[in-house]
Amino acid sequence: MKLPFKIDYEHISLKLLGIILIIIGSMLAYYILVFIIKRLFSLSFKRLHFKNPYLIKRRQKSLEKITLSLLRYGFYFVAFLIILSSIGINIQTILTGAGILGVVFAVGSQNLIKDFVEGFFNVFEDNISIGDYVEIDGVEGRITDIGLRALKIKSFTGEIHIIPNSKIGHVINYSLEDGKALVDILVDYNVDLANALKVIEKSLKMIKDQNINIISTPTIMGVNKLQTIGYEIRIICLTVKETHWSVQRFMRGELMKAFKHEKIEIGVNQIKIRNNNISSIH
Fold first, then answer.
1. How far is CA 127 from CA 83, 95, 105, 223, in A?
2. Do 209 and 245 form a contact (C-beta atoms < 8 A)?
3. What is the pLDDT of residues 235-279, one digit of tens each?
4. How far is it, in rounded angstroms, from Cα 168 to Cα 122?
5. Are 131 and 142 in contact (CB under 8 A)?
6. Structural domains of the chain sorted by starting position, each given as residue range(s) with its CATH number in brackets
7. Selected residue with higher pLDDT from 84 and 236
8. What's the predicted TM-score (pTM) here?
9. Is 172 helix (H, G, I), strand (E, B) or coil?
10. Residue 134 CB coordination number (10 Å)
């Protein structure tokens, strides 16, 4: 079947080649600019490393991530316009109409702008950074990514939570300062308080020497509560950031060993059966 018009394959090939060259050139320009920006960030933050290298490095990485996200979207837009121009479309008309479209876009993209602003200032003010262990509105885990619109939190069990930057509310950041381990031990009322405190005090000195994440020697705060099945003794200590959970588990285990060795009973519910009637004994 003969077509009513002639296809200029040479012209089409040249246009396709031009588009491919534009894409390749844009990618090269993008990666060169990415390298320059990363280098600039590295040099800018290098003089701050004497303050806290760990926190400064994470802050640098987070600001870098947001800046590069913005750069990537900008390159997509510019490359798209160049491709349109190469195939004969008048981009001046598009850019002229962009003023009107920009108003419409601005109204519809308020959340996008808010996401970017909130994310940028959260990082800039050092509230959060990539790698921080946080709890945000009930979601707990480590921040794996901070983007233009949202951040990603990986929970302890592996789930990835995506939270828009503008929706970030109450933030608990466990990575900014040293932590504090808090352990409550429930002791049976039949155990003499002075004896229980003596055993705990002796154990705490060894616990401090056995765990490198404990900064200060654990301190006995005293009897914290009087429960129905025993009295509760509270112990606290400073820990290396993000380690207070493991330190608490370690302290409980070591104190249980000491109690068992010294035959000190912990407070437990007991059940007594008499004439087929079950009753609790405190």
1. 41, 38, 30, 36
2. no
3. 999 999 888 999 999 999 999 999 999 999 887 776 555 555 555
4. 9
5. yes
6. 9-176 (1.10.287.1260), 179-270 (3.30.70.100)
7. 236
8. 0.59
9. strand
10. 21
Among 133, 142, 146, which residue's Cα sits nearest to residue 67?
146
Q: Which amino acid is located at 147 in the chain?
A: G
Mean pLDDT of 52-66: 67
Tell me the residue ranges of DSSP E strands in 116-275. 133-136, 139-146, 150-154, 160-164, 171-173, 179-187, 219-226, 231-239, 270-274
Question: What are the C-alpha distances in Å from 105 to residues 57, 98, 112, 196, 213?
Answer: 36, 9, 10, 69, 52
Coil/strand/helix, residue 154? strand
17, exposed or middle or buried, with CB in 10 Å at 0-12, 13-18, 19+?
A: exposed
Burial pattern 72-85, b for ≥16 Cβ within 10 A else e, equals: eeebeeebeebbee
CA distance linking residue 54 with residue 61, whole number of Å: 11
CA 146 to chain CA centroid, Å, is 9
Say if residue 133's pLDDT is above 80: yes
Q: Which of 152-156, 192-196, 198-202, 271-275 has the lowest mean pLDDT?
A: 271-275
Asked if residue 174 lies in contact with residue 242, where contact means CB atoms within 8 angstroms, the answer is yes
Instruction: Provide the 8-state DSSP code for 128.
Output: -
pLDDT digits (tens, 9 = 90+) for 12-24: 777 788 788 888 8
